[in-house]
Amino acid sequence: MPLLPEATYCSDSVSHMKHDIWTGLVFRKRTDNRHEVVDLTTMTPEEYAPIEHKKQEKHSVLVHDIRGNEFEYTIEKNGFQYVRDEVPELRDCSDDDEIKKILIPRTEELVRKVTGATKTLTFANRIRCFSTDENKMAASQAPARSVHSDLSIVGAWHLLESVITDPAELATLKKGRVLVINVWRPLKKIRKDPLAVCDWSSVDLKNDWITTRMIFPHGWNELGHLSHGDQQRWHYLSGQTPEEPLIFKQFDSAETGNGGMTVPHTAFEDMETVECEPRLSIEIKMFAFIPDSA
Question: CA-to-CA distance for 101 and 203, rounded, in angstroms?
């Protein structure tokens, strides 16, 4: 599917001076049940959607703009990091497949540089280019507007075992440090639906974190949801451009005692840009492996 033409986007007259934003974020309702199971072998995603909606609640949250201070936040300390990475080849691209062909290897190289990994393996990618999408769950190409993480600790190990099927290779990789990294990059300067990330050091795992196992006809995945907490610190980068990808952890085997550092994130609404056309962005998810130095 071709990308939306440049002419449909808001002009640079839309203000993107540094500013914090009060906005409503969609959280999981607080519950004593810290682990949910959703069986999608007995219902369709469309049938489950209203059930999911009843589990959610919206809270007004201040999302801090870290423009000008973005380099104070690191993937090791906060679970996320904005980096400068110019890809001139993207400027003339208008085809999804061509964009992915350029960006996937380039992004793996970037992650190896940032994390020190010696091996990376992309397992998912998606271009988002709609405001809303009738497709549900993982098939949607609209921004994800509820607070979530892509994996739990159990879900990350399960995914690794499904991707690496050679037992000897799997055993070797598990001896080192295993990361799951999501790299989120605008394909045009962000006007509408920017991405917010929650500083992992502000997440109260005992009280705020809920894991959800999704069972599909072909297998299962386990992700994370977050209940609202006043201590949580949310951040974004105003006017984010294609040269400013966001790298954030969705799992770190070195942090399993601290919840795996599965950073919560969500698209959010900026009332100044709600009339703009849908944003264009790509997310590339990969394993990154750091060998055991011992």
Answer: 36
